[in-house]
Amino acid sequence: MTPRPTPIAPSEITPPEVYFSRRTLLAAALASAASGCVRAAGGEPAGAPLAYERNARYSVSEKPNTYDEITTYNNFYEFGTDKESPSEYARMMRTRPWSVTVAGEAEVRGRFDLEDLLKGQPLEERIYRFRCVEAWSLVVPWVGFPLGKLLGRFKPTSRAKYVELTTLYAPQQMPGQRAAVLNWPYVEGLRIDEAMHPLTLVVVGLYGRTLPNQDGAPLRLIVPWKYGFKSIKSIVQIRFTEREPNTAWNVAAPHEYGFYANVNPAVDHPRWSQATERRLGSPFLAARRPTLPFNGYAAEVASLYQGMDLRRYF
Amino acid sequence: MPLLWWTCAAFGLFGLSLGADPVKKLEHACGKTALNLLMITLSVTPVRSLTGLPQLLRLRRMLGLFAFFYAVVHFTIYLVLDLELNFRLLGADIAKRPYITIGFTALVLLVPLALTSTNGMMRRLGARWQRLHRLIYPIAALAVWHFYWQVKRDVREPLLYLGILALLLGYRLLRWQRLPADAHPRAAAPGALTSRSGSATAPGRT
Fold first, then answer.
1. N vs C: which end of chain A shows fewer Cβ within 10 Å?
2. Which domain holds residue A122?
3. What ipTM score was computed for the predicted complex, to two decimals?
């Protein structure tokens, strides 16, 4: 006697919509399995679109790096000391609401909401070179406005010789701050004439959209003729001072990182050469190029340092 | 295996990627692998005597040669992909950058060890082979130092390697001190010969 086949319970029957989408499901499963080792395969700029105009006068003609390169290769020690950590962990940082405290030698002081600070500031896009002290470089289309226009609103007094800027301190949101790699919070500073220079930017966007957290959202500094560490990210305080501020890297290793930190191929880092740099995203075996004095902005800024010994004030 | 993985990543195979600076990534990964292999090589002797598995010794030569191989790949990537064969830059780096001087010295010192790793060379050199191969201790120290000096600020990882190296070398120091004078590697005073000479605890090979 042949056993009768057991009838198939209705619950065991694969619904047709699942059956017909089996390839999609399989692809999705594979994709999610692969995503563990894939790093930023996409590369569409995220963030809200901004209204801005391109400033051609202050833009270089070199080809900008990709959005991916600019947003997955970051030094932002607040999120860890390797280049990929910021893009992994920076989403932990809350950038709204955001306010900036203005203090020190200025008539207008207090706490200002981000929206207040940005109100009435027309945004411009500038394509700048970016040179890291580690001897790699990028070309980046930033969106922002001159820092001088912001600082002017606070009416700095005649005693304001320097500007000190401070990054957010929030170890809950910035896991890198739980280790004493640097003296937190991160502090940077500029001489007032450097801060007021038209090349010095407050940046709020990248590739036409609001800045991703790992690149220093919601607002950061960009000083294109100085090494990247001067361009402080995620700013929460602006203080006008009479004395030169104690800046984070200068405090950490004074013989290696000066207060000025102007890009200078003639003055080496004590441990490595600054004469050349590697441009990220370049074709094979064509990345290394000579570093330019003041990162190529000498015509605009060299006069700021007339008569100064740049070996001493490195 | 690591090399196969990075080769796939370098060409974007299997969805792997080396990120925005593939050259630095490869350079550092090979250097780190060489350092790891050096540490593993140095741990063969302590692990062997602690576990009582003398056959582990057979792995030591292979591990050491792998360390040498990765050190060579590390240097080649630095010279070809990083410096883009700019020999002027290479000369300046070796002469002026202490961390590169140190790393290069370690690599150069590894060469005679790799060349004398064959059975034939071991026989030919006899007791001198062992003396020569003690070079591995300063080489490992130079390699850790090289790592420590090239790190910008976060020295936690190099310090970890320093700790491991201290353990591995400290273990040997302790052993040598506790050995009877005649079995001491730096050959003891004459007349100290006792029945325990040539005991199985002598470091090195059979």
1. N
2. 46-305
3. 0.79
